[in-house]
Amino acid sequence: MGQAYKKGTSTYWKKCYHNAKFSAKYRNIDWQFTPEQWRQWWLDNGVDKNQPRHYKGDSFVMARYGDQGPYHPDNVYITTNTGNLQDADHTYDRNPKRGPRDVGCRSIHTPYGEYKKIKTAAEQLAVDVTTIYNRMKTRPTEYYYL
């Protein structure tokens, strides 16, 4: 069984590191940080990963320049969740089976119904567009493109 990490302890950052590495692997993105490099990068950017944090639009994230290439110290920058979504190239679907897409014409399914656009779904559900994108990532069986 894996080691237990508690928030705020001197080893909690290791759990955060492994979660980030797994997330990159899950998305088929090359990971080129050692645990120590990753922790130092965050500390150099003023974020202590041993401290509990929230996951909101103003949370800091590590983003890749142009959403291209590996997670590597020379290919990442710090931004917020909201900033990362704004910087992302939403005209390209990373699923190689589908290829480029026109975001403006992509319908979405939610537990509350189907909508012609993410923006429309966000307006009808009284949430931010970022919230819809986050729900698509965290609840893919409930929120997905049609």
Task: Provide structural commentary.
34% of the residues lie in helices and 12% in strands. It folds into 2 domains: 12-87, no CATH class; 103-145, no CATH class. The strands form 2 sheets. It has a 3-stranded antiparallel β-sheet, covered by helices on one side. Helix 4 crosses helix 5. The protein is α+β, with helices and mostly antiparallel strands and 146 residues long. It has helices spanning 12-26, 35-44, 81-87, 118-125, 129-138, and strands at residues 60-64, 76-80, 108-110, 113-115, 144-145. The termini are far apart. Residues 96-104 have low confidence and may be disordered.
Provide keyphrases for this structure.
single chain; 146 residues; alpha+beta; two-stranded antiparallel sheet; 5 helices; elongated
Task: Give the SSE layout.
Elements: H1 12-26, H2 35-44, E1 60-64, E2 76-80, H3 81-87, E3 108-110, E4 113-115, H4 118-125, H5 129-138, E5 144-145
Antiparallel strand pairs: 1-2, 3-4, 3-5
Helix pairs in contact: 4-5
What is the 3D form? elongated
Q: Which band does the percent of strand residues land in?
A: 5-15%
Task: Kindly report the spatial arrangement of strands forming the biggest sheet.
Answer: 4-3-5
Tell me the structural class: alpha+beta
Order of helices and strands: HHEEHEEHHE
Helix % is 25-40%
Largest sheet: 3 strands, antiparallel
Q: Low-confidence runs (pLDDT<50, min 5 residues)?
A: 96-104
Total domain modules: 2
Euclidean distance between termini CA atoms: 38 Å
Number of helices: 5
Rounded Rg? 17 Å
Instruction: Report mean pLDDT, rounded to a whole number.
Output: 78
Number of strands: 5
